[in-house]
Amino acid sequence: MALSLFGGRRNNVFDPFSLDIWDPFESFGPLANFPSSARETTAIANTRIDWKETPEAHIFKADLPGIKKEEVKVEVEDGRVLQISGERSREQEEKNDTWHRVERSSGKFMRRFRLPENAKLDQVKAAMENGVLTVTVPKEVKRPDVKAIDISG
To answer: Could you say which of 7, 69, 91, 150 is the most buried, measured as most Cβ atoms within 10 Å of its Cβ?
Structure first.
């Protein structure tokens, strides 16, 4: 937004000094001109993981479309740290009589979570289904100590 010398805002598209210029291509997004492999790589790098706590467990869900379970690692480190990481490399080759093209893409992600004291680290389970990784960390369910009190009288 530019301010004119006479006060107020200037937003005229035809004004060469105006900074409010409408870009008709901005609605296509920053990855519109990239090949699909680059979009997939960016999706891997921006992997989001949801952490949900239930009464019985901590549940982590990661949306990893197109990644095989062999490309994902789930580890529990010292200090109750859960680490979910992955790497994918793709190579697409096209040959023709006149040209030879190879498109390579790769992407990595890593997320780390400090687990609470009540996590049972020796019972962590992970499953991958339809591109969704689910990691379940059971909790120690502490039962309240109930002490019966004798009633006198």
So the answer is: 69
- Give the whole-angstrom CA distance, residue 26 versus residue 8: 26
Tell me how far apart the alpha carbons of residues 35 and 41 are, in angstroms, rounded to a whole number: 10
Owner of token pair 């790589």? 41
Is pTM beyond 0.70? Reply is no
Q: Kindly give the parts of the chain with pLDDT less than 70.
A: 1-46
Note the pLDDT of residue 45. 53
Sign of CA dihedral 122, 128, 131, 137: negative
The answer to whether 133 and 126 are in contact (CB under 8 A) is: yes
Q: Which residue type, as a one-letter code, is found at position 38?
A: A
